[in-house]
Design goal:
Elements lengths: L1 E3 L2 H8 L5 E6 L5 H13 L2 E6 L9 H5 L5 H10 L4 E3 L3 H5 L16 H5 L3 H16 L3 E5 L3 H14 L3 E5 L19 H20 L6 H16 L2 E9 L12 E9 L2 E6 L1
Parallel strand pairs: 1-4, 2-3, 2-5, 3-4, 5-6
Antiparallel strand pairs: 7-8, 8-9
Helix pairs in contact: 7-8
This protein binds adenosine monophosphate.
Adenosine monophosphate binds next to helix 2 and strand 5.
């Protein structure tokens, strides 16, 4: 496994590489990331994983500073996963030269996380644009766990590059909680609550098909979750998975959920 510490290393290493699979991450590697890497290894000749905690996508300074970091452990895990390259760029590697880049999310897309995290997806799209430009991958692997991110990045990259964005299923732990670097911040008690919430919503989504007035069932479910688990809910919404429009039809839908559990923000979709 080659560790690429800057853009010189990157350009030298990738000079003759064709069909490169790219897995962008912010580190704290877990089995969710591993599933993306495994898919890339099947479909591509070589696989590059980047670890870059992108300041531009954090709408809260504390959240950025407290984002879990564990580079030694990450490198040892990635080595075991037989990744070919790990790219660890500095801020300058990604953002210099400072060409002006005006990325805006259109009004219709200011929903779900885009509504609650001002500037977040603009930051995600900018970093993905710059990384794609630097790395020029054949395919990029991204998780359905962050479905809105996948949706926006895929639309953006498809329009501008030849690179294909591949979606990968959400990986959950044995108690059905979606793996996430943010889970490292949870106490055992809150981890247990987050698992119960995931189980609750997975079975709710399955039963939703039998409900007559779906919007009312969702409103009631929100109240129930707040009462049972004392959490702060940002949104619980059923949306069409192809266009992310609000829907009352179960077919092609996903239930999108964001909440705070003791100041830790978690998102999922079912
Ligand atoms: P992150 O390091 O959180 O920025 O995530 C890097 C990539 O891994 C993103 O494309 C995520 O959607 C994906 N990912 C994170 N958690 C999971 C999971 N539990 N299952 C599948 N993909 C995931």
């Amino acid at each position: 496994m080659k560790i690429l510490l800057n853009n010189n290393d990157l350009n030298r290493a990738l000079k003759n590489v064709l069909k490169l699979g790219f897995v962008p991450t912010m580190g704290s590697i877990h089995d969710g990331h591993k599933s993306l890497i495994d898919k890339s290894k099947i479909e591509c000749k070589e696989t590059l994983v980047s670890i870059f905690v992108n300041p531009k996508q954090f709408n809260n300074k504390n959240d950025f500073q407290n984002y879990p970091k564990n580079i030694k452990k990450d490198l040892s895990l990635l080595k075991k996963m037989k990744v070919n390259y790990v790219y660890l760029p500095s801020y300058k590697d990604v953002y210099y030269p400072k060409k002006r880049m005006k990325i805006s999310i259109n009004k219709n897309d200011k929903i779900l996380c885009a509504k609650f995290r001002n500037g977040h997806f603009e930051g995600v799209l900018e970093v993905m644009d710059r990384l794609t430009n630097l790395i020029n991958p054949y395919k990029i692997y991204m998780g359905e766990k962050d479905y809105q991110q996948l949706y926006l990045v895929r639309n953006y990259i498809n329009k501008k590059y030849k690179t294909k964005v591949v979606s990968c299923k959400t990986i959950r732990n044995k108690n059905k909680l979606a793996l996430s670097s943010r889970n490292f911040h949870l106490t055992n008690k809150n981890l247990n609550i987050a698992e119960k919430i995931s189980q609750n919503l997975l079975s709710f989504k399955k039963k939703l098909i039998k409900e007559k007035v779906i919007s009312r069932s969702i409103s009631l479910k929100k109240l129930e979750l707040i009462r049972l688990f004392k959490i702060n809910i940002e949104y619980l919404e059923l949306r069409n998975k192809k266009n992310l429009k609000k829907t009352n039809k179960i077919k092609n839908s996903k239930l999108f959920f964001a909440y705070y559990i003791n100041k830790i923000r978690l998102i999922d979709n079912y």
